[in-house]
Amino acid sequence: MIPALLVGLALVDLAFAAFRDAAGRDGRIRKRAFYIDAVVRGTAIGAALVALLGALTAAVVMLGPPGTYADLVRIGGRMVLVYGTYATLVLATLGVYFVGSGDVRAFATVAVLGPFTWLRVPVVLAGALWASLAPAEVPAARPWALVATFVCAVAVATAERAFGWLRALGARAPRELRRPRA
Amino acid sequence: MPPERVEITDLIIDYDPETLARKPVRKDDVLAAMAERRMGRRAARIVAGLPDVGGVLDEAHLDALFVRIHAELQRLNEEFRQGERLLMLLEPMLRVSSAQRVVDVGCGLGYVVRWLAAHRQSARGTARAWGDGVELLGCDYNRALVTEAQRLAEVEALECAFRVANAFRLREQPAVFTSSGVIHHFRGDALAAVFRAQAESGAVACIHFDIKPSWVAPMGAYVFHEARMRERVSRHDGVLSAVRAHPAATLLQAARAGAPEMVFAMFDGAVGFLPILRVMHAVVGVRREHAAAFRGALGPLGARLSELS
Q1: Which of A44, B47, B222, B224 is most open to solvent, judged by the fewest CB atoms within 10 Å of its CB?
Q2: pLDDT in tens, B27-52
Q3: Interface pTM (ipTM) of the complex?
Q4: Topology of domain B68-304, per CATH?
């Protein structure tokens, strides 16, 4: 359950990161297709990243001492608590933004959506740090679990920047290698 | 006392006010002006990192930078629904006045003008229809921004136009002048001069939106620009814009001194208990003969407008 929840949270977060990476790059008024394209591509790249991190975590579990998986689940439980709360607040506010009137939308943006985007990286890293302070039942497994935890947390936290790098690489690629824009 | 700090974008580009021709800007001159204004190391580092050709800031690089900055700004305007905000006032204004043209001053990439054009197209033939036959025009000194604005309008087949021009020296009249986030760039006597030039150019009315100064505005601007903007110049200038935004009293005083033939009021001018609810305010002006009709046409929105005087 915990691994599935973490994968789900990571995919949602990476989809939003892809949206933010696309935002402010296309001056058109009607650009829903552009955003959908960016989010779909971002989610696909995010899924590949999550699969890679899953493989890495599996390797850590196999190479580590007995109890590593249980320790990871214990740490992951705390991460789900932090990231789940953060995600719930953001998604609920986004819902309010889309159905609310002018002032309510402004409040949603100014009080939550903007500041929470600003706090995203610290929340990801602080969440991992707090989770890693969970009591360890098998002390020998803890270093292994910590490596997997922080590699995953840093990878997800920096993914938005990676989207920007990928976009820049795409812009430098020969025209025939680029996908046409919607 | 050192001169006031200004946005970097106000320093790195310059135009001849008469011909609107671009003037070369020397990087050393910008850095010296910034040092005199005590704008800090961070700002100096940003300018020092800009490419130059023989000491003159590279115009092609600046053009591309300005387009990127304004695309990011458009994102903020989209998020804060600046088009809808302007239309709330513009639609009743057009209904009661003889204006056949809306001129956006310092339009940049023309987001607001293009949004209005797109909205008008989609509302045509419905109960939300407005402004049929009204020309939507954006003016800016920056040719790169105007060219991009025109291109974007053509891509989406929007009924609006953009010009490299001084908005107050157009031959056509009468007009409603609008702007978003521009008015704080005019300081002291220049602020009143804007309202004077606008009235002399045959303005029927004006709606100038800008950031509303409050205790929370600079902090909010910092958080938003750090969260949303990629360009370092945008991050620097966005916060400074919130610091430099004119209070309502300054705007009204300058407007009334510059254009006594019009009456002015603030829309969303009261800071209130929670200033984050309404982050923008607007100085709204109208010819005296239209004042009562305009207030009446606003309906319940009139409660957010101070006294027109």
Answers
A1: A44
A2: 999 999 999 999 999 999 999 999 99
A3: 0.90
A4: Rossmann fold (3.40.50)
